[in-house]
């Protein structure tokens, strides 16, 4: 017996997506946002079907993402931010609670939230992951959001 296997596709056609992006470490997040928007456009997404909300930092991403999910207007949300480890435990609290809050928001609403929040040890690592050439994690988060939106629609 062969089981039925379904997968989503990373197409923006017919989708409405929201991006919530932090302003803290904006020199990194701007590149993530650019990558996400480019991936959206490359997959056929229209300007009118993409919404971007900016929040102060990564700690604020979950509440904004939760509100966007609960609005019923979006098929998925992309969360973008950057937390760079410092000399205090602040990194652990911000990164951990951001991840936990985004997971909870997605589970509570049933709307996929793609985790495009960099949690890195150095600025150099962040710059590498946000580069507009190569592997931009904002672009990857958008592709994940599109694929999950497609999959959820097929399951429903």
Placed side by side, the strands forming the largest sheet appear as 2-1-3-4
Output the CATH class name: Alpha Beta
CATH superfamily (homologous) name? Lumazine/riboflavin synthase
CATH architecture: 3-Layer(aba) Sandwich
Helix proportion range: 40-55%
Q: How far is the N terminus from the C terminus?
A: 24 Å
Specify Rg, calculated over alpha carbons: 15 Å
Uncertain stretches: none
Task: Summarize the main sheet.
Answer: 4 strands, parallel
Outline, from the CA principal axes?
globular
Number of strands: 4
**Mean of pLDDT:** 96
Order of helices and strands: EHEHEHEHH
SSE blueprint and pairings:
Elements: E1 17-22, H1 26-42, E2 50-55, H2 61-70, E3 76-84, H3 90-109, E4 113-120, H4 123-130, H5 137-155
Parallel strand pairs: 1-2, 1-3, 3-4
Helix pairs in contact: 1-4, 1-5, 2-3
Give the structure's gist in a few sentences:
47% of the residues lie in helices and 19% in strands. It is α/β, with parallel strands linked by helices and 156 residues long. The chain has a single domain (17-140), classed as Rossmann fold (3-Layer(aba) Sandwich), CATH 3.40.50.960.
């Amino acid at each position: 017996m062969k089981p039925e296997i379904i997968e989503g596709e990373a197409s923006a056609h017919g989708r409405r997506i929201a991006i919530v992006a932090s302003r803290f470490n904006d020199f990194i997040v701007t590149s993530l946002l650019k990558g996400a928007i480019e991936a959206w456009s490359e997959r056929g997404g229209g300007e009118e079907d993409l919404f971007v909300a900016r929040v102060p930092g990564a700690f604020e991403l979950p509440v904004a993402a939760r509100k966007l999910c609960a609005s019923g207007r979006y098929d998925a949300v992309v969360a973008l931010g950057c937390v760079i480890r410092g000399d205090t435990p602040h990194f652990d609290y911000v990164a951990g609670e951001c991840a936990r809050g985004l997971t909870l928001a997605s589970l509570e609403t049933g709307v996929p939230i793609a985790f495009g929040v960099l949690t890195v040890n150095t600025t150099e690592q962040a710059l590498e992951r946000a580069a507009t050439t190569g592997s931009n994690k904002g672009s990857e988060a958008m592709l994940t959001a599109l694929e999950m939106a497609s999959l959820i629609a097929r399951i429903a």
